[in-house]
Design goal:
This protein is mainly alpha-helical. The chain has one domain: ABC transporter involved in vitamin B12 uptake, BtuC, CATH 1.10.3470. It is built from 15 helices and two strands. It has a two-stranded antiparallel sheet. A hairpin with a 3-residue loop joins strand 1 and strand 2. Helix 5 packs antiparallel against helix 6 and helix 5 packs across helix 12. The two termini are 38 Å apart.
Length: 367
């Protein structure tokens, strides 16, 4: 049977050939379908539309408070500053769609940046250190998947432990010190430094930061993987109903290995890009500005904690909302700790909305 035939069969309610493999939609799915028919638009699009409307309202408020907010330069800086968060959040989104969670991304982000710096200043050419760092990020994801899928420890516990482990290793290899390759002894090669800094510090035509290009590339790749491939279709199916997916023979374990590896890889990419832009990294990099905002961006963007639901555009919109809040509060000289409070409030509100919507869909299905 071809993959196209299999996908067609799955779209009709059967995940594998044979009359015994038919899976009836659960109440949540039925509720969402009924809700969609009633209003004529997919719930995911309505969620993103509401989120974008919220962002516009917040932008208007910040513009009233500070006329610099909606200038072209500030808008480019806003998108540039949220690009790393967006890349890491896209990897996290895949894990959550698979009905798992990765709490280690912030620590992996910081550890990979520090590992790259330490390799580089100790004589490893940056052209070798870069792919090695990407491999480290993916390998950490594979380790998370092994203990989650094979050992069967809940991913919440596994990745929380990995968070602590990666953070401890970062402090250990760095001696609790920040590093800047420019001021290493001996200093790194000038040509290598120019190449590395250009990864994030360069600008494209119209003064567009190159970090925005990296975000677009990541979004396109993961968008095609999730929304235009059999992998993404199966991932959504197994996340929405893992037991049914196992019964019909979907490779649940291998898919979860892949999404954890991609999550680790995205965290490594984020750490590299910010290290490149700032030209330095510290042992606590990513702990506050990546870990929980990443989770918040995915949930705000409409992904379900129970798995089986999530979109690239929703996740990017969630990251944009958080970036807008951070940028606007900074322009208005609001204390950074207040920004953490804002992220916490928005995250709790998003989870509450998700639960409320799920309950509403279930009631709609029963009626």
């Amino acid at each position: 049977m071809s993959e196209m035939e299999e996908e067609t069969r799955m779209s009709k309610g059967s995940l594998a050939p044979g009359p015994t493999a038919t899976i009836e939609p659960d109440a949540g799915v039925a509720g969402r379908a009924g809700h969609t028919r009633a209003i004529g638009l997919p719930p995911s699009l309505l969620r993103v539309g509401g989120l974008l409307a919220t962002i516009v309202i917040i932008m208007v408020v910040f513009q009233i408070q500070n006329s610099f907010f909606l200038t072209g330069n500030n808008m480019l800086e806003l998108v540039r500053s949220m690009s790393t968060l967006g890349i890491v959040a896209l990897g996290e989104m895949l894990v959550i769609i698979a009905a798992e969670i990765d709490l280690s991304v912030g620590a992996v982000y910081g550890f990979c940046a520090m590992a790259l710096g330490e390799m580089w200043i100790h004589g490893v050419p940056v052209y070798v250190a870069l792919p090695a760092t990407l491999a480290i990020g993916a390998l950490i994801g594979v380790v998370n998947a092994f203990f989650t899928v094979v050992v069967r420890i809940p991913s919440f516990i596994v990745t929380l432990g990995m968070f602590s482990l990666a953070q401890g290793l970062t402090y250990l290899i760095s001696g609790s010190q920040s590093i800047n390759p420019q001021f290493a002894n001996p200093p790194v090669d000038a040509g290598q430094y120019a190449f590395f800094h250009g990864l994030s510090g360069a600008t494209l035509p119209f003064n567009i930061p190159v970090q925005i290009l990296w975000l677009v590339v990541a979004a396109v790749i993961i968008g095609l993987l999730l929304h235009r491939s059999l992998f993404g279709f199966r991932l959504t199916a197994l996340g929405g109903n893992p037991e049914a997916a196992r019964l019909v023979g979907l490779p649940v374990k291998s898919y979860k290995f892949w999404v954890f590896a991609i999550s680790g890889l995205c965290a490594a990419v984020g750490g590299i890009l910010d290290f490149s832009f700032i030209s330095s990294t510290s042992p606590n990099a990513g702990i506050n500005n990546i870990t929980f905002p990443t989770f918040a961006a995915v949930i705000i963007g409409g992904a379900s904690l129970s798995g089986g639901r999530g979109t690239v555009i929703g996740t990017l919109a969630g990251a944009l909302l958080l970036g807008t809040l951070a940028n606007g509060l900074n322009l208005n000289l609001v204390d950074p700790f207040v920004q953490l409070i804002a992220v916490g409030i928005v995250t709790i509100a998003a989870v509450a909305l998700d639960r409320w919507a799920s309950t509403l869909h279930g009631r709609t299905a029963r009626t």
